[in-house]
Amino acid sequence: MLYNRIVSFLTKYIIAVLLPLAAVAQAKVPFYEFKPVEIKFSAGFTGLMNDPTHKNGSELVYKYNGQLFDKTDGQLPTKEEGFDGITKRSTPWETLGELIHAYREKNFDKILSLYNLTTQDQLIALLSGDKKQKFLNHVSKITKAKILAGFEYKEGILVIYESKELGISSCYMLKKKKKYVLASFNDDGPEAWNLSLYFKFKPEPITVPLIQTAVDSFGSNETKRIDFKLNKANDFITVCGDRLGQAVLYNIKDNSEYDLNPEPGIVGIDFNKTKSAMPKEYTLYIAETNYPLTMVSEPILKAAKGFTFKVYKK
Amino acid sequence: MKLIRKKIKSLLLLALIVGNTTLMFAQDLPHQYLYVSKQTGQTSNFHGQQGKTTDKYEEGNVTINVQGPITYQVIPIDMSIGHNQTKNWQGQVSPLIAQCPAPGNSVNAKLLAGYDVVFSRPQGGPADGAIVLSTYNCNVEADGVAHDHSGCIFHGSLGGMHEIVRKQGTIVQDFEVFSVNCVIPPALNCSDGTATLHADVYPGNEGTVVWQTPFGQLSGNDIQINLPPNFNNINITATYNVRGVSYSASGVIRPSNLIGFALPCCTNQPKNVNTIAALTFDGPCHPLVTFVPASVAPPATGILGATNMVNVAATANGVTLTSTISTVNENIELSTTPFAVDFSKIGTLLKDAAEIVSHAPGSPCAPTFSVTGGLTLTTSKKCCLGPCAIKDAQKIAGSVGISAGVSCRFPIYGIPYVASLDALLDASISVTGTLSHQTTCDAPKVCAALGASISFGLGIGASIAGGIITADLKGVIEGASASVNYCFIPAPVTGEWKANLGKIKVVGTVTTLEIFNYSVEYTLFDGYEFGPFPL
Q1: ipTM of model
Q2: CA-nearest residue of chain B to A295?
Q3: What count of CB pairs under 8 Å joins A to B?
Q4: Average pLDDT estimate for B115-130
Q5: Is B159 left (phi over 0), alpha (psi -120 to 50) or beta?
Q6: Residue ranges of domains in chain B
């Protein structure tokens, strides 16, 4: 009995005393250190804007003075970890940490204070009426945010971060009197957009899915279901012809509403659904990506695998 | 130099006394034609005259020879001339008929005039083969004495040297002697009772043909005469005359016998029978024929067709033959029925196309489809020639209006700040056509293109995060076209459609939570070709 009391006491002591100390210890914003970084990825997925300046063959290559965070780094401190939302704003990460904290607290005045004066006026105008509350309701969904990258961009700092609740976002900061303040930014170039898209998908090399339903031939008035087993669940499968620039025939995300096979990791597609295929032999190409593809490009054809079937007149 | 040449010319004219021209040099003498008639013994001649007055230095002689069946005569016979003389000659060349070839042939002949002349010219004349015999100063005569009239026109008052030269040579005059001929072919050509009088004449380069016929004298070759309706054999004579030389021939105009009469199996137009009849004769002289009836025509409205019997009679030999021809009124419709075509596949394919564009098979695309108008199938008869037959003809007529539309919702993943964004694709196709197509004799099918226009519209728009993240985007589609073709006859109806879609871009602006504004423009794809797909 006494033993139990001692254990209970120690447990309460640990919870009451030690955990807050641990939280305070974890409530540090990520270390800020800009140095030359390079980001290189395939130029062939949907959504990328044309950027001939940074195109090298079939890849886009961006070089900046900045900071990249891997999967385990870049987490901004939360109030659960003891972060009270107050920093010196001496690094972009401290300013961003305060912003996320203010989002969670629905503290609009605090949010405003993190912006420069020009943008404050914009925000006040933008969030007139009930928009302000809608905005606060939306941003307060954030529980945690993680910095993905920051770069010296134009006259300031481009910061890309993500949260489980709101996905990718990017913001722009200026350094004023040793403090970083948020500022609106009008970007008419493709760089920031393409980098944001890169961090959204984090594109991995194209792979080839397995054809689960082997098809040799079918009649011109028949619809044929073909199932493809993906290497990784939730990837996209692409089926296309071999003409560069043409639309791909199918680009379906696993488990999306257009995936006719509900089993995770398997995508089902109906071929000749309108039963209007011309009788002849067809060769199509299949590829698996973790990003969307809508146009046939050289990298796809290079990595894709062809499969042939014949449609006979029926 | 002109003076020297003139003197040489004067002497050389001696060689031309047989010519009726004043041409001077052998190489310039034109070829001359002579004619003989072995039938009548007539010949044509080549003649001329020339005079010459020499000065105190000039003298010469000409000797003539001939080659071939010709002879010549010069008066006076002596063709020499001395100093300070005047002489006139007349000459003639004639064929030697006995040595001439058979009628219808020719032979070449030559007259060769050898000359030997002496004359005076300024010293240093042309290197023309003349031999210099002596020279003299123009201020004195050749005898070395200065006379009152001494001096040369060429040198004038300044004086100068002349030379006495001797020149010898031959001038050639070529002849071709024709033995004229005239032949009337055994059978002359006649058409509809009009004969063409033709004689094969030789040489035919000049001259006239005169015909003696029962209907009078006619002049000319290949002339036409109308024959009397009931003629039998008509004797004729042709005489070919050229430069007073004639050759005659006799012949007979014999009417050919009508041995065949055929008409096309049918006609769809009024026709004069003589323009469509195929007559066969046993020779080239076709007499006048008469057709009864002289014309045929399709029957009046309400009667499809009729068979017409036609007689043909050749007036010259009394032969009568019979043939038949059907007349067809192609405007008479034997039957008219509605023509049903299932156009619904156009709507199905539009939906298919929209799904390809949206990469979303099975997406909740909502199609609409309507058809207006209608087609009819009309049958009639048609007169076909080559091969000749009366065939069934079918006509598709009417109008169709097909309108199909489809709206598809699909996700766009290419926006960094949202998982996906809904895009709405509106596609529509309008197919219209007014048809009036009939099968033809050569193409027993009716295929036609229907006017087709296709359009795609892409709307992307979303207000996210209570209006803070905004995606003011739209789809820009650079051109779309479609073609729709059907073959209505023969059954079953078949069709094909094709469509082309240009580049599709997403353009607009996106604003993030933290007022980061992007100007966005990216390409979904460069284009797509749909089909051809069977309809």
Answers
A1: 0.81
A2: B525
A3: 170
A4: 88
A5: left
A6: 2-178, 183-253, 258-328, 335-534
